[in-house]
Amino acid sequence: MAGFDVKRKIAENVKKAAAEFAAREDIVTELGEPIIGYVDARHPLFDIFMDKNMSEHPKNIYRPGITLIVYAIPYEAPVADSNLQGDAPADKWVRAFTESMWLSMTLNRVIRDALNMTGRLSSCLNTPLDWNEKTFRSKWSHKLAAYAAGMGDFGPAESFRLNDGRYARIGSLITDGKYADDFDPMTDDQLEAVYLHILNNSRYIEADGAACTAEMIASCPGKAISENGIDREKCQDYCRSINEYVPCPDVCGKCFGF
Hints:
Blueprint: H1 6-22, E1 35-40, H2 45-51, H3 58-61, E2 67-74, H4 77-82, H5 91-116, E3 122-124, E4 131-132, E5 137-138, H6 142-148, E6 152-155, E7 159-162, E8 168-175, H7 188-202, H8 214-219, E9 225-226, E10 229-230, H9 232-240
Antiparallel strand pairs: 1-2, 2-8, 3-8, 4-5, 6-7, 9-10
Helix pairs in contact: 1-5
């Protein structure tokens, strides 16, 4: 469609859908206006993520795909601050996990509606229930896509903070249209450095030199944190008691602020 600005239409659709979602009587969580990023599906970072079994490669999931459209649904301060108190995940935090998942599903639809207007092919990359019990991860990582898009960085237990410091629910789609900036090549050493950076920031026990403070250890209701880092399996076992289907650290988040 000549003269049609797809990225502008996506932004309009997302903003409208988020406002309508917030106005619903059953929604109680204060969520920020979604932020949208774009990254080429052929970016070299996806190669290292796949090689290290951190995430599937987007081109393996949807071969026609050229661009990843990544969106972040920020948690506003009342939600994040509530989880700093008490010995268990705050009700506000757990509710935000659920409601942001509902909004994510809506955003997937309205983004695809915008792409459909120009005949672009698109695909969602996974669902929130696509959880691997052996790797303690989803098959596809929306967070790694957001990192590749320059939207933020990782913290404890693979938590993700946006560039402005807010936590967020991350989602992504892939399309055959080209909407991302060209990427710079990266050497093997640069890719390995990114992997180690994410691993060290996440503070999992497999990271060399991972260290956790006494305060961080005490914050974990699942007893999954020691001086040497976070035990993925113990973390998942506790998170399963909160959400049987998506037992990821995001449903707890007690260690995210460290």
